[in-house]
Amino acid sequence: MLLRLPGVYPPQEDTWLLAETLAAESLGPGSRVLDICAGTGALSLCAAAAGAGRVTAIDISRRALATTWINARLRRHSVHVVRGNLTTPVRGQCFDVIVSNPPYVPAHDDVLPTHGIERAWDAGVDGRMLLDRICATAPAILAPSGVLLIAQSVLSGVEKTQSMLEEQGLSVEIAARAEIPFGRVLSDRVALFEARGLIKRGQRTEEIVVIRAVNYLLG
């Protein structure tokens, strides 16, 4: 069980699907891991437990960073927490593995929440306001032969994520998939999603994928 302060995204199916994929990567004392949109720090803790030498967790939420720090201390893991906007605080650095479970739920408009739990899932009309920025900036801080792992819903355009990463020279594949029932947030937006053609009438499940991109260009 992980401690979670109010307003911090609770680990769910997408978190654990990404954690399973992360666990399959080869991590050792020399590995540098970056967790973008860390939340409770669940993925940072997985990396630390797997033997990563340095784990950095980034989130824009102070409560998320406090939660990550506390959870790491409780498990006696070393996790460096940094407050900031996606990759901005670590420009110029280099990581062997970058993992991210960002907000990706399509919302009513493109105004991103600045507080509250909605900040953990709302990502603009197409669900890509953070995904696009991660795809554009993460490859620049990925080490040669480094691996980028991103979780997202098919509702927010898997093909675009793949094409953006391939345009940056990464080799891209879908490493994991899971079909999960709608939770409260998606259930409340069924009419919106049907109107936009994102789901079929009566559909009440979504597919979550983990995209794995490798930096072979510089390897």
Describe, in short, the structure shown.
By secondary structure, the protein is of the alpha/beta class.
Q: How would you describe this structure in keywords?
A:
single chain; 219 residues; alpha/beta
Task: Give the CA-based shape.
Answer: globular
DSSP strand count: 7
Approximate strand percentage: 15-25%
The Cα radius of gyration reads: 16 Å
In which range does the helix fraction lie?
25-40%
Low-confidence stretches: none
Give the neighbour order of strands across the main sheet. Answer: 3-2-1-4-5-7-6
**SS-based structural class?**
alpha/beta
Explain this structure to me?
The structure is a single chain. The protein is an alpha/beta fold and 219 residues long. It is built from seven helices and seven strands. The chain has helices spanning 13-23, 42-49, 62-74, 131-137, 158-167, 184-187, 190-196, and strands spanning 32-36, 54-59, 80-83, 95-100, 142-153, 171-181, 205-214. It has a seven-stranded mixed beta sheet. Strand 1 (32-36), helix 2 and strand 2 form a beta-alpha-beta unit. Helix 1 (13-23) runs parallel beside helix 2 (42-49).
Write the layout of secondary structure elements.
Blueprint: H1 13-23, E1 32-36, H2 42-49, E2 54-59, H3 62-74, E3 80-83, E4 95-100, H4 131-137, E5 142-153, H5 158-167, E6 171-181, H6 184-187, H7 190-196, E7 205-214
Parallel strand pairs: 1-2, 1-4, 2-3, 4-5
Antiparallel strand pairs: 5-7, 6-7
Helix pairs in contact: 1-2
